[in-house]
Design goal:
By secondary structure, the chain is mainly alpha-helical. The chain contains 6 helices and 3 strands, in the order H-H-H-H-E-H-E-H-E. The chain is elongated.
């Protein structure tokens, strides 16, 4: 009896639900759509990320977001560096040997086989010694060849590397190492070259005496211009004259800096004279830094004399 009543109640409830669905068609439609959605594929979230270089590593954990396209990378997004020298393999010309980036990942070589690596060798194509940063001293007199007037004969520093007994090829009483015209007799006033006209020599001397530069620079002071203009006129009026300019400094400061400064100052004088109409090929320049003092560097007066650009006219 109890079972029969229960069964009757269930049938009545089912009928009631059916009636509710029939009486509320909008809710019925929503209900059926909801049930259908549950039976479909489960929801799959889509993870969106940025990968600037397209290497498959998201930017948020990519330590090298500008890797070239197609280049293999580590899990952190950086190209491989097999030899751990800090140069990525695609840029490294020596992938299995450590080398600096400045040399494309390869170790520095020694082209002249003098035991001094090319990156610190001032003369990488010529065998030299460590004392002169890889530059040669052929005669072993302690003066490197570029500053040695007699590079194949041991000499003295005060004679610019030449021996005490010197030749005088042209017999003019001026030793060859001081003679700018060793095959033509000349005079001491013109460094062993033939004398020039007195008025031209006077203009040359005045240009030398009045030449001034900004402190530790190769900028000529304006007060020097009139004398240099007069020298330029002498050169223009004498097409066969050639001019040799020698830059010198005192011993204050770094040797290499002084050498460079002496060359730049001589070049500055040349540039000025060329701007005044003197043909460039007629002017030769050189610089000797502090290696050829004319006075002591122990006093202000002596140092002032040593800071100079010597001027020599060589007539043809």
């Amino acid at each position: 009896m109890y079972l029969i009543k229960t069964f009757t109640i269930i049938i009545a409830m089912s009928a009631a639900i059916t009636v509710c669905e029939a009486q509320n068609p909008k809710n019925t439609k929503k209900y059926r759509a909801h049930k259908k959605e549950k039976k479909g594929e489960p929801y799959k979230p889509v993870y969106q990320y940025k990968d600037s270089d397209g290497d498959g590593v998201p930017d948020e954990r990519d330590e090298c977001i500008h890797t070239p396209k197609g280049e293999p990378v580590t899990p952190f997004g950086c190209p491989y560096d097999v030899d751990f020298d800090g140069v990525y393999d695609y840029e490294d010309q020596c992938k299995d040997v450590k080398g600096p980036k400045e040399n494309k990942g390869c170790p520095w070589g020694d082209k002249d086989n003098d035991g001094i690596l090319d990156n610190v060798d001032f003369c990488p194509d010529v065998a030299g010694i460590a004392k002169f940063h890889g530059c040669p001293d052929t005669d072993g007199d302690g003066i490197q060849d570029k500053d040695d007037r007699c590079p194949k004969e041991p000499g003295l520093p005060q004679l610019q590397g030449c021996p005490e007994q010197l030749k005088d090829t042209d017999g003019d009483g001026i030793d060859d190492y001081r003679d700018l015209c060793i095959k033509v007799p000349g005079v001491k006033e013109n460094k062993g070259c033939p004398p020039i006209k007195k008025e031209d020599q006077a203009a040359l001397n005045l240009a030398f005496q009045n030449l001034l530069f900004e402190v530790d620079k190769d900028i000529i002071k304006e007060s020097s211009y009139p004398s240099l203009d007069a020298l330029a006129k002498v050169m223009r009026n004498n097409p066969k004259y050639k001019l040799y300019l020698e830059g010198h400094t005192d011993s204050d400061g770094d040797d290499e800096h002084n050498m460079d400064l002496s060359k730049r100052r001589a070049a500055a004088v040349k540039k000025y004279l060329v701007s005044k109409g003197v043909q460039e090929y007629r002017i030769t320049t050189d610089g000797f830094g502090e290696t050829r003092p004319v006075d002591t560097n122990a006093t202000p007066e002596g140092r002032k004399k040593n800071r100079r650009v010597e001027m020599n006219i060589i007539p043809e």
